[in-house]
Amino acid sequence: MKVVLFCGGYGMRMRSGSSDDVPKPMAMVGPRPLIWHVMRYYAHYGHTEFILCLGYGADHIKKFFLNYEETTSNDFVLRGGRAELLSTDISSWTITFVQTGIESPIGERLRRVREHLDGDEMFLANYADVLTDAPLPEMIERFSRRDAGASMMVVPPQSSFHCVELGEEGLVEGITAVSELPLWENGGYFVLRQEIFDHIPENGDLVADGCTALAKQGRLVAHQHRGFWKPTDTVKERALLDSAYAHGDRPWAVWERDAGAGNTGGVPGARAGTA
Length: 275
Known about the structure:
This protein has helices at residues 34-44, 58-66, 106-112, 136-144, 206-216, 235-246, 254-257; strands at 2-7, 28-29, 32-33, 49-54, 76-79, 82-85, 94-99, 122-126, 130-132, 150-155, 162-166, 172-177, 185-193, 220-224, 229-231. The protein is α/β, with parallel strands linked by helices. The strands form 5 sheets. Strands 7-4-1-8-13-10-14 form a 7-stranded mixed beta sheet, sandwiched between helices.
């Protein structure tokens, strides 16, 4: 199944200065950028055809893959001055790079890569900056059995703030942590059908236009995930993930967790995961 990754936004809260033109998906977590971790997650489950919706800082993403160094994250033998890889990351991946505009909203970026989906009835989509250990095969299987146009992964609110209920004369009647409210946030992992294009106008948005329209028709389903899920909207959030990686605490790396089970995640000759 093809995977559309939205990686063309400015990511202003991740930038360290006015001269920093590196797009957010290229922020580093361990020895690899965010976008690699997201792609490796999908590849682990057998989805190795990627369509990158490029925009701001596109050159950084192109150069990373054009000059990709497998030895950074794979074991190898140095023989006669040449590296012989013992495993690979991306040799089985197909990556389509599409410039979808500097200012384009996400829905418009999706519209501009529709031709590269080859008319596939179902496909995957992601913001390319959120890491999770969500069970992707289960998410896809549940959606495939539903008569719906889209599935959105949702997660509990991540805020540490509290909501205050006020009564008469400003008296506080209750205090509730946002995380305890019966609310869910958009988790940024989508399973979509071609029907989504019927609801995204020119320069429209995937969620505000496409998903909202489907929800009004009762054709949007949610996959509730209470496991690991971390966004990287700020420098602090990226730094926390980088630190966790350095200490071996990386639950999103499902390819490492499942290595002993025989799923090698996109390595040539390996048995593909559930799709």
